[in-house]
């Protein structure tokens, strides 16, 4: 004879199941989607090899800080661009150790050629040696290609577009944490950010984004942005007021980036004179070098830029969309609460020293304390010669803070 459960028993079990299912203590934690897609080892280096290479390089870095052997990987990871999921790429260097280690994300400066992307560097390249040397001192080193290079080369690089740049960095950091876990590297959850020129801008953009929305289980300790042109409106005023500017491709790069990102088809025609309006779309092809792009432009601002724009950009409603794009991507509307060390060469006229000075002043005026935000001038250094002393000092500071 088949026994039928009583209504009372059914009700009891139903209520019990409902209470258990609805209990906060028994709810599984939300699933965090993985972002790492693939990792491929590029090379391995011993600590001794790295010490020797750094000593030969002449850098002011104590070789004794390099303790660990390092594996360097080319990685792909998921990120978002204008609301759509895409796959981006970068380089991650992992120290081979059971000790707990920190992480540093290093943002590269302005590049236009696909062969200059970090993930395009082959085994033995000096760039990979530098990343491995940093990793050997006790850091997981993350180097995003940035959207527009490597795996995402079908997208035009969003040059000086705050949101897109910051998101690619944040997701590469997440991918690095996943790779470290997969390789049994113990990450202590302490993150640093560093970068020079566009990399300085990208570093500050990522710092701002992480303060606004922290990365789960990762604590930003400090950032080190350098020579970044953070105030794009001020950069525009500076360049427009020059009779000659030695790097006109910077201006064309920003304009082409904003034209495509904001889908403003008439931006180049509003900005430049012919024949430059017609030339610019074909110059940023991922093959032509920055020097050769400059040759196709003019370093005379009166010849390159439309006179009406130079005179009326700040006031004419016709150009409001350009003003708004510059304002939206200028990093002067916030107040960092996590330590930031800003660097800039005092003789820099490519990205003018004054741009960092006024950005620093604006962030202080916004409420950041001078204890949190430090400004470090590099006396006698320009945009090129400021790089080495910046790198050397950042490595020392990270060793102290890690």
Please describe what this structure looks like.
This protein is an alpha/beta fold and 402 residues long. The protein folds into 2 domains: 36-230 and 333-401, Alpha/Beta hydrolase fold, catalytic domain (Rossmann fold), CATH 3.40.50; 232-328, 434 Repressor (Amino-terminal Domain) (Orthogonal Bundle). Helices cover 41% and strands 20% of the residues. It has helices at 7-22, 47-57, 126-136, 162-182, 198-212, 232-240, 248-261, 267-271, 276-283, 290-296, 301-304, 307-312, 320-328, 353-365, 387-401, and strands at 36-45, 69-81, 84-96, 101-107, 139-144, 187-196, 219-226, 340-345, 373-378. α2 (47-57) packs across α3 and α4 packs across α5 (198-212). The longest helix is centred in the middle third of the chain and has 21 residues, at 162-182. The termini are far apart.
């Amino acid at each position: 004879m088949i026994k039928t459960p009583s209504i009372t028993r059914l009700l009891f079990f139903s209520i019990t199941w409902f209470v258990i299912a609805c209990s906060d203590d028994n709810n599984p934690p939300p699933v965090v989607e993985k972002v790492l897609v693939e990792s491929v080892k590029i090379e391995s280096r011993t600590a001794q090899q790295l010490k020797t290479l750094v000593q030969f390089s002449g850098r002011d870095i104590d070789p004794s800080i390099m303790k660990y052997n390092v594996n360097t990987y080319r990685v792909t990871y998921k990120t978002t661009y204008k609301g759509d999921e895409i796959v981006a790429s970068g380089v991650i260097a992992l120290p081979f150790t059971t000790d707990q280690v920190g992480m540093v994300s290093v943002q590269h400066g302005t590049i236009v050629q696909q062969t200059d992307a970090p993930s395009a560097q082959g085994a033995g390249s000096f760039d990979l040696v530098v990343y491995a040397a940093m990793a050997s001192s006790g850091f997981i080193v993350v180097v995003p290609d940035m959207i527009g290079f490597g795996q995402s080369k079908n997208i035009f690089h969003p040059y000086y577009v705050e949101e897109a740049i910051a998101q690619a960095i944040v997701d590469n950091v997440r991918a690095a944490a996943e790779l470290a876990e997969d390789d049994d590297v113990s990450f202590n959850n302490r993150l640093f950010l560093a970068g020079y020129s566009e990399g300085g801008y990208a570093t500050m953009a990522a710092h701002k984004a992480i303060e606004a929305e922290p990365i789960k289980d990762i604590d930003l300790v400090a950032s080190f942005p350098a020579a970044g042109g953070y105030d794009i409106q001020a950069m525009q005023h500076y360049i427009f007021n020059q009779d000659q500017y030695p790097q006109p491709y910077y201006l064309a790069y920003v304009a082409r980036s904003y034209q495509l990102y904001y889908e403003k088809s008439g931006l180049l025609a509003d900005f430049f004179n012919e024949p430059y309006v017609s030339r610019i779309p074909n110059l940023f092809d991922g093959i032509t070098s920055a020097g050769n792009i400059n040759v196709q432009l003019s370093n005379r601002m009166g010849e390159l830029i439309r006179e009406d724009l130079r005179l009326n950009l700040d006031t004419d409603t016709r150009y409001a969309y350009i003003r708004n794009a510059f304002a939206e991507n200028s990093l002067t509307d916030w107040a960092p609460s996590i330590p930031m060390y800003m660097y800039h060469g005092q003789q820099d006229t490519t990205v003018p020293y004054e741009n960092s000075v006024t950005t620093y002043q604006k962030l202080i005026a916004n409420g950041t304390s001078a204890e949190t935000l430090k400004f470090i001038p590099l006396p006698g250094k320009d945009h090129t010669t400021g790089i080495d002393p910046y790198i050397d000092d950042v490595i020392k500071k990270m060793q102290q803070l890690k």
